[in-house]
From TrEMBL:
<protein>
    <submittedName>
        <fullName>Calcium-binding protein</fullName>
    </submittedName>
</protein>
<feature type="region of interest" description="Disordered">
    <location>
        <begin position="1"/>
        <end position="30"/>
    </location>
</feature>
Amino acid sequence: MTAADDQGGSLRRTITRAFAGPAPHGDETVGATRISNVTVNAGKPVELTDEPLQDFKAKFTATAPSGIASGDMYLYKGSYDTPDAVLYGTWPAACTKVNATTSTCEAHFAYIHPRWSLGRNSFAGTWKLAAWAESADGTGHVDLHAAKSAPILRDATLTANAAPEPVTKGKTLTITGKLSRADWETLGGHHGYAGQKAKLQFRKKGTSTYTTLKTITTDSSGNLKTTAKATTDGYWRYTFAGTSTTAPATAAGDYVDVR
């Protein structure tokens, strides 16, 4: 949108189109304005618990021969034309000048409470970042509908407990645990994640590397239970690799004294 007054002043700003409006024709590039080096959460998956006041950042580099006047971005789930969900930055992106032609634009997605900001567990998974920038002289701009893909995942927790402690050498240890993940729809924090595979691992006292012994599947409540023979002092734990909707998790090692 552009505007001018009778004193010769002018203003040009890019606004987000109404999703109910006509479908766009795809990415748009006018002139030599370009966007590159797009990152979301420093390249790491966004892992959201059920707690309020969570945040992450996204940024990109924008260039134009005359420099960059402004730029911004938002995240969406589903298709660009009819998204299932949208996350906007809490404030307009800040574009910091690097040199005469280049700026770095950064958006802060703050004060996120998944129950209110998202509201559905089904929104966990791959999101896309729409990004745009405008040249300083107003003659060029770029609008990318899917500048980057980013996983926004449900946080997971995992526990492990080996018993009895201490244990006689050669006797059987029972290792229990529970895999849970954040619920974005209801109160109550994390709930058991059923039917998922977790690896049982052991680290001998005085070493730094865990060895995988077997793979266990969680029951209908997310519980894990298996047995192993006690041979030497060390740490027992479960580890979960994560899924397309849920973050990975590793339990703290539970030390067992073997006598």
